[in-house]
Amino acid sequence: MALYDKYAPMLRAVCLRYVKNYADADDLLQEGFIKILQNVGNYVETGSFKAWMKRIMVNQAINFLKKKKQIEFTDLTGNEDFDDDESYNPEKTENKLIDGNMGPDKIIELMKQLPEGYRMVLNLYVIDGFSHKEIADQLGISINTSKSQLSRARKTLLDMANELLTQNKMSYEKQL
Amino acid sequence: MKNNFNDIDNFLRDSFEDFASEPAPEFRTKVSASVRKFNFFKFNPMSFNIFYLVAIIVGTGTIVSFATTDNDTYIAKSLVYPIENIFITTLPRNEILHNELATNAINPEFEVKKQNDFTFNNPSSDSQKHIVSNAIQNNVTTNNHNISIITEDKTSSSLNYKSTNFEISAPVEKNIIFDTIIEEKNSTILDTINVEVRKTVEIKKKRKSLK
């Protein structure tokens, strides 16, 4: 339990990024922790122990959501290239996500509102450092699908952040 | 635009780098129970686990099994004396036996000629086979023996003797394990071909009660 006391908060934060609610996050944390204990003998001291545990937790999260059949992806129909999404120009939109200086708690609340596929790819690529190929292999999707999900996730997150911050500003002005 | 996306990505990474969320205290109890269950099914010489539990159950079962086993067993030996190759010879009509034998021929008593040899002179019993069986019952033997029975042949005018030699093979010992002897008896089984003498011990199984 010393291991739990030291790393549970960090691991729970990983779980909260992937699932929709706190109950699922706790279930995932419990399963992931047992998995870590089962595999602790296999840990080779080539990298950080924290990173190793995070990786196990992420894999457990993927399996958790697959078991619950909560991951859905919208497949592409053509040869879209989502490195440059011309349909969306973030330069024209105020980036309130960054300017609003949102904390991780608020960001997680926004991420919970994202569709599962968007949230999954956003977490795997942006925060956990998976490549599109690794994501495609893990989730059983194409690389293009992974890219499209990521692009749409960013866009949706930005829009939600902008809307939230605009609403907050309006309600603040009303109070004044 | 890529730069903006990069900014967003960097922002998200920075936001979550040191992010931690403390679980509820009651959740620790739940995880602790899961960890105990996990450790219970894993072998660890320093802590009690399922392997030790199985060993205790097996050990207890073995001890109880031995404690309730009735150790007073009796082995009954059934000694079967098969008589094979019965040779019946008839002495020549005019042959006179040795004086000593002739003298003893009229003696109705049984006489032991040599150790482990039995000679029955003019037996009063009605059948030779019966004599053989009586001899064996009265004298416990375990090796090969020769039994000669000399009978007076009264059909002729001279004194002739029939010598019947029996070769008795070593008994076949059969072991039968029982619990309590309730009765011992000797029984003789006679038939027209073989003579068998059996000494049997009849017993019944006795159960010991647990104390």
Word description of this protein:
Chain A contains eight helices and no strands. Chain A has helices at 2-18, 22-39, 49-67, 96-99, 104-112, 116-127, 132-139, 143-175. With 211 residues, chain B is of the alpha+beta class. Chain B has five helices and nine strands. The chains are: A mainly alpha (176), B alpha+beta (211). At the A-B interface, helix 1, helix 2, helix 6 and helix 8 of A face helix 1 and helix 2 of B.
N-to-C terminal Cα separation of chain B, in Å?
A: 90 Å
Q: Give a short account of the largest sheet of chain A.
A: none
Secondary-structure element order of chain A, N to C: HHHHHHHH
pLDDT under 50 segments of chain A (min length 5)? 76-94
Overall 3D geometry of chain B?
rod-shaped
Helix content class of chain A = 55-70%
What is the tally of beta strands of chain B? Answer: 9
Radius of gyration of chain B: 44 Å
SS field, number of helical segments of chain B: 5
Q: Which oligomeric form is depicted? A: heterodimer
Largest interface: A-B, 36 and 26 residues
Mean pLDDT of chain A: 80
Helix-strand category of chain B: alpha+beta
Question: Which segments of chain B are poorly predicted (pLDDT under 50) over 5 or more consecutive residues?
Answer: 74-145, 157-161, 174-199, 202-211
User: What fraction strand of chain A?
Assistant: under 5%
Helix-strand sequence of chain B: HHHEEHEEHEEEEE
The percent range for strand residues of chain B is 25-35%
| Main β-sheet, spatial strand arrangement of chain B | 2-6-5-4-3
Helicity of chain B, as a percent range: 25-40%
Secondary structural class of chain A: mainly alpha
Number of E strands of chain A = 0
